[in-house]
Amino acid sequence: MSSSSSSSSSSSCTLLIGLLFVVLLGGSLSHGQLSPTFYDSTCPKASNIVCGIIAEALKTDARIGGSLIRLHFHDCFVNGCDGSILLNNSATIESEKEALPNIISVRGFGVVDDIKTALETACPATVSCADILAIAAEESVSLAGGPSWNVSLGRRDSTTANRTAADTFLPGPTASLYTLKEMFSTMGLDTTDLVALSGAHTFGRAQCSTFIDRLYDFNSSGNPDPTLNTTYLSTLQGICPQDGDRTVVTNLDLTTPDVFDNKYFSNLQVLEGLLQSDQELFSTADENDAVAIVNNFTADQTAFFASFVVSMIKMGNISPLTGTAGEIRLNCGKVNDNSTESDGLLYSSM
Ligand code: HEM
Ligand SMILES: *[C@@H]1O[C@H](CO)[C@@H](O)[C@H](O)[C@H]1NC(C)=O
Ligand SMILES: *[C@@H]1O[C@H](CO)[C@@H](O)[C@H](O)[C@H]1NC(C)=O
Ligand SMILES: *[C@@H]1O[C@H](CO)[C@@H](O)[C@H](O)[C@H]1NC(C)=O
Ligand SMILES: *[C@@H]1O[C@H](CO)[C@@H](O)[C@H](O)[C@H]1NC(C)=O
Ligand SMILES: *[C@@H]1O[C@H](CO)[C@@H](O)[C@H](O)[C@H]1NC(C)=O
Ligand SMILES: *[C@@H]1O[C@H](CO)[C@@H](O)[C@H](O)[C@H]1NC(C)=O
Ligand SMILES: *[C@@H]1O[C@H](CO)[C@@H](O)[C@H](O)[C@H]1NC(C)=O
């Protein structure tokens, strides 16, 4: 099974080469605006290179696509899509990786570094780390059977990180629908965006620590979450014993764990959402305008895919650095040295 999925993976990458040639329109770019054709003349194979490395990584790490799209989300919600989540601790950087929503949880940095290395060989000092995350998110979805789309590009990389903002703006797994809506609204995202983007939980994993309270002590009640399907409750209690290892992971989508499809939404209808923040979309009684959207996406995968693409592009547009702002980092884990900074500005006149 893994060999058949990897062969379809590499054909998806090849397909995109063809697409990229078709897309060579050479549109004029204005500062402050992203464009799908941004690298068409400076790095036409960028998407293909990203895709190839993810397809290779998937052979040994089935959840890497989920990990990569999550990095893009956690990048964009913290002062915009500027690659800040990738910066390690240093004299000037207090890494966002150590913020509560990220620590012992975000992953995929090795694959991002592999992508960056390949891109620096193919087109030096050209493709930003922020754009790598945006492209990787799209390729990950499409390799898992989800939609493809033309990714808006031209983001530049931050020279700063903000751990406090990472602790403030990223939603937690026990968030209520009300809180989720508030937090997405702060980013300019509405309820349809919230529901569509939550659909990314159609693949990837979560640790016991993120849902264990639902199994034994929901909302400090001493009992399980009453909205959790009792069959699924027993399964999860087996995976996550009360005093067991809370870093054990399980599938966010119990039905089709590694496929990007609409099963996440049908799971919610039978009370089989893994996180409280998932089930809230369907099960909160009061003024729940999300439930109609969940029902629509369950009945209509095409509608889910179309909404997901629109919402991903919206999320990818959150406060990017463009023009000559920021830099093109040469190593995604650290800010450029002063001596190499001019390389990062090489193509800024575009
Ligand atoms: C709506 C609010 C959201 C909350 C509260 C939330 C929370 C979480 C949590 C707690 C995990 C498990 C982390 C761990 O145990 O290490 C997780 C995983 C994941 N999240 Fe979300 N998330 C949200 C929205 C999103 C969005 C918008 C996306 C992408 C568009 C996304 C994509 C993912 C993916 C793919 C995983 C699995 C990652 C992996 O396997 O490495 N999530 N999320
Ligand atoms: C990407 O853009 C090109 C050119 O505008 C278009 O022909 C193609 O259909 C688009 N692809 C997708 C998946 O939207
Ligand atoms: C970090 O983000 C917080 C929350 O948005 C903000 O109050 C603070 O000014 C930011 N710090 C820096 C150095 O940008
Ligand atoms: C959690 O408990 C508090 C106080 O007991 C209650 O007001 C609140 O509605 C409960 N929340 C949920 C999601 O059950
Ligand atoms: C619990 O899940 C099973 C399938 O996994 C489903 O048949 C059943 O209807 C669900 N129960 C509720 C209350 O939704
Ligand atoms: C889902 O919503 C879309 C957009 O509103 C609509 O075009 C489509 O017909 C709906 N699908 C179903 C099955 O209700
Ligand atoms: C940054 O940290 C990651 C691990 O989180 C490591 O793989 C990478 O090599 C580091 N990069 C730099 C430039 O130190
Ligand atoms: C290099 O950067 C540091 C701190 O950002 C600054 O203090 C120093 O003056 C810079 N050196 C050069 C040669 O630009």
Automatic annotation (TrEMBL):
Origin species, per record, is Castanea mollissima
What are the EC numbers?
1.11.1.7
Q: Which Pfam families does the entry link to?
A: peroxidase
The protein's name: Peroxidase
Under which main EC class is this enzyme filed? oxidoreductase
Q: How is the cofactor bound?
A: Binds 1 heme b (iron(II)-protoporphyrin IX) group per subunit.
Q: Which parts of the sequence bind substrate? A: P171
Q: Where is the signal peptide?
A: 1-30
Q: Where is the active site?
A: H74
Q: GO CC: one term?
A: extracellular region
Is Ion transport one of the keywords? no
GO molecular function terms here?
Answer: heme binding; lactoperoxidase activity; metal ion binding
Quote the InterPro entries the UniProt record gives: Haem_peroxidase (IPR002016), Haem_peroxidase_sf (IPR010255), Peroxidase_pln (IPR000823), Peroxidases_AS (IPR019794), Peroxidases_heam-ligand_BS (IPR019793), Secretory_peroxidase (IPR033905)
Q: Which GO terms describe its biological process?
A: hydrogen peroxide catabolic process; response to oxidative stress
Q: Which cofactor does it need?
A: heme b; Ca(2+)
Detail the disulphide connectivity of this chain as listed in its UniProt entry: C43-C123, C76-C81, C129-C332, C208-C240
What is the annotated localization of this protein?
Secreted
